[in-house]
Amino acid sequence: MLKLQIILTLVWAGLALCKQYKYNADVDGWLKVHKAPLTWLEAFMKCHLEDAVLASPSTAELRTAMLNAVEESGIDFPIYIGIKELFVYGHYTSIEGVQLEDMPVKFPSTNGTKPKECMSMTRDRAVTFNSCDQWWPYICYKKNSTQLKYNFDCGTFDPAYHYNSVTGSCYKLHKQARTWKGANKVCVAEGGHLVIINDQKEADVVVNLLKEKLPQKNDSFDLLSHTGFYNWNSDLLTFLTIHGEKMDTVYNNWYNNKNYIKGVHAFGGILGSGRLDIGTTAREAYFVCEKDPNIQLFDQQERILRKIY
Ligand SMILES: *[C@@H]1O[C@H](CO)[C@@H](O)[C@H](O)[C@H]1NC(C)=O
Ligand SMILES: *[C@@H]1O[C@H](CO)[C@@H](O)[C@H](O)[C@H]1NC(C)=O
Ligand SMILES: *[C@@H]1O[C@H](CO)[C@@H](O)[C@H](O)[C@H]1NC(C)=O
C-alpha cells in the first residue's frame, strides 16, 4: 500500500510539472517559461494574474537563470522581458523599477532610429528594442520572501483558495466583478478554471460561498455568478462545460428554458437559488474559481513528500 502511495505521489508530482514554477536557488525565486507567445502587455498581465512579474535580466544571476530556463524549455529566442519605456522617452525600466542602464546587459544600438518601447532578449544575452505588438514567449518570475506561506492544501501561494472535503476541490471567491471571459482568464492564471458544477453538493458549496460573502439579495439576475459552461456554438445551442462535458453529465438544473437564446453568445452562471442561467458577453459579476488540489503550482516536492510521510 505504501509502495503504491509513493508511486502515485511521484506520478502526481510528475503531472504537476507542466504547470509549475521552478525554484532557482541563485535568484531565490521561481521561474516559469511561457512557451505560448503573447504581446508584451498580455505577457505582463499573464504574469501579474499569476501573482508574479514578467522577468527581466536585472542581475547576472537572473539573466543566467532566464537564459537557462529558455534553453531547457526548448523554445526559440527571443523572449519578451519585463522592460518597457515608461512614460518618459528613453526611460527604460523593469517592472520592479530597475533601470535598463543599471542592468548587466549591453545597451542595444539603434543606429539613429527611435527605439521601440518594449524589449526582448536573445540567446546571446543581448537585449533589443522591440515593438510591443509582436508575439513572443516570456518568463514569469516570483521572488521568494519570508512573507510567502505555501498553501499546501491547494498547491498555491494564494491563501484565498480553500479546500472543500465534500467535493475534493479548492475554491476561491472573487469579489471584483468581471466579464465571464475576464473571470475565466483570472481563474486560468491562478492555475484553475471557472467553477464547473458537477452535482447538487457542489452547487450547494458554490451558492453558500457566494451567499456567505456577498450582500443578501433576492433571487434576481444580480446574483447570477459566472460558472464554467457556455454556448460553444451560438447558432446550434451547444451548451457544454469549459472542459467540453455535456450538460446532462454535470449539474443541469436550469432556472428557465435555455432555448430562448439561440444566436446569442451566452455564458453560464448560477443564481442564488442554485439554478443555472445565462448572461451576455459584457455582463460583469462575481465568480468562483475552482482548482485541483493535486496540482502544485510551485515546485516544493521534497516538502510535499515530507508532509505526506
Ligand atoms: C547605420 O546607418 C547608416 C546610415 O543610414 C548605414 O549606412 C549603416 O549601414 C547602418 N549601420 C548598421 C550597423 O545598420
Ligand atoms: C524562501 O524563503 C524562506 C525565508 O527566507 C526560506 O525559509 C525558504 O526555504 C525559501 N524557499 C525555498 C524554496 O528555498
Ligand atoms: C425582494 O423581493 C420582494 C418581492 O418581490 C420585494 O418586495 C423586496 O423589496 C425585495 N428585496 C430586496 C432586498 O430587493
From TrEMBL:
SUPFAM superfamilies per record: C-type lectin-like
Q: Give residue ranges for domain C-type lectin.
A: 166-290
Q: Where is the signal peptide?
A: 1-18
The record ties this protein, via Gene3D superfamilies, to: Mannose-Binding Protein A, subunit A
What domain of life does the native source organism fall in? Eukaryota
A Pfam family of this chain: Lectin_C
Keywords, alphabetical: Signal
The question of whether Aminoacyl-tRNA synthetase is a record keyword is answered with: no
Output the CDD domains linked to this UniProt entry: CLECT
Record-given protein name: C-type mannose receptor 2-like
UniProt organism field: Spodoptera frugiperda (Fall armyworm)
Source taxonomy = Eukaryota, Metazoa, Ecdysozoa, Arthropoda, Hexapoda
